[in-house]
């Protein structure tokens, strides 16, 4: 668990990647989501919902060290342009951010702020303290469990790389167990809308994984980061919908 926290957050001392960390990805997600939710609620007690939403997104970026956002930017540049597989993998390795990456980052960040502000204005659970903490905790758990599970269900797209050090099929599939647990928590505490939000997160995350499979032949560390951000954002979109 300490290795998972060290890799996925700015907390703890950096350690070498290990497959043993993978089953704990969902736990890290629960912690991060609860921290974001707590900051979201606390900020909402002081500032209007839009500012509170911005601060909550800022807390998320700070705690993760923008690791997943960087993966989203690289994946936008690597997966979306009309180029061949070899060129896509080359683009994913470059540190520069192009137009595709910039566009997806701006859209996702804007959606996260807008959805958080909408929910706080009267969405899930009437925007009570428990709901504002539990919703991101559940969605952040599902997002990281999906990314972990992908390492056991998809091939690694490169011949070698950082993400390869995490690959352990049995441990990765074990990480998926966090998803039904998160779904059950959402259903019991947040009702049908919470469960629908979990479904939205799964759909969004799986869509990124399928695109990566189609265009790269598997996953990379960047596409796993993109999976996490898109899954979280998709779940928030469902929660903020006007049902």
Tell me what the structure shows.
The protein has ten helices and no strands. The chain has helices at residues 2-8, 25-44, 49-64, 67-79, 85-93, 99-120, 129-153, 169-175, 178-216, 221-240. The longest helix has 39 residues, at 178-216.
List the helices and strands and how they pair.
Blueprint: H1 2-8, H2 25-44, H3 49-64, H4 67-79, H5 85-93, H6 99-120, H7 129-153, H8 169-175, H9 178-216, H10 221-240
Helical content, roughly? over 70%
Q: Main beta sheet, described?
A: none
- Spell the H/E element sequence: HHHHHHHHHH
Indicate the overall shape: globular
Distance between the termini: 38 Å
Q: Counting H and I runs of at least 4 residues, what is the number of helices?
A: 10
Runs in which pLDDT lies below 50 for 5 or more consecutive residues are none
Query: How big a fraction of the residues is strand?
Result: under 5%
Concise summary:
By secondary structure, this protein is an all-alpha fold. Helices cover 73% and strands 0% of the residues.
Search tags:
243 residues; globular; mainly alpha; 10 helices
């Amino acid at each position: 668990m300490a290795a998972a926290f060290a890799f996925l957050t700015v907390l703890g001392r950096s350690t070498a990647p290990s497959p043993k960390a993978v089953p704990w990805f969902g736990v890290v997600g629960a912690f991060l989501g609860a921290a974001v939710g707590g900051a979201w609620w606390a900020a909402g007690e002081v500032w209007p919902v839009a500012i509170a939403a911005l601060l909550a997104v800022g807390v998320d970026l700070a705690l993760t060290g923008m690791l997943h956002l960087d993966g989203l930017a690289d994946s936008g540049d690597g997966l979306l342009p009309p180029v061949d597989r070899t060129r896509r993998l080359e683009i994913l390795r470059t540190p520069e951010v192009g137009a595709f990456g910039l566009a997806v980052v701006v859209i996702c960040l804007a959606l996260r702020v807008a959805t958080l502000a909408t929910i706080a204005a009267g969405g899930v659970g009437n925007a009570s303290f428990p709901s504002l903490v539990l919703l991101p905790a559940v969605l952040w758990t599902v997002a990281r469990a999906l990314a972990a599970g992908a390492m056991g269900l998809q091939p690694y797209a490169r011949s070698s790389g950082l993400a390869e050090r995490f690959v352990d099929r049995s441990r990765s599939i074990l990480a998926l167990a966090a998803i039904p647990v998160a779904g059950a928590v959402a259903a019991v505490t947040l009702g049908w809308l919470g469960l629908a939000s979990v479904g939205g997160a799964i759909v969004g995350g799986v869509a990124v994984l399928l695109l990566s499979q189609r265009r790269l032949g598997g996953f990379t560390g960047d596409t796993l980061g993109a999976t996490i951000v898109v899954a979280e954002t998709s779940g928030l979109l469902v929660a903020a919908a006007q049902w």
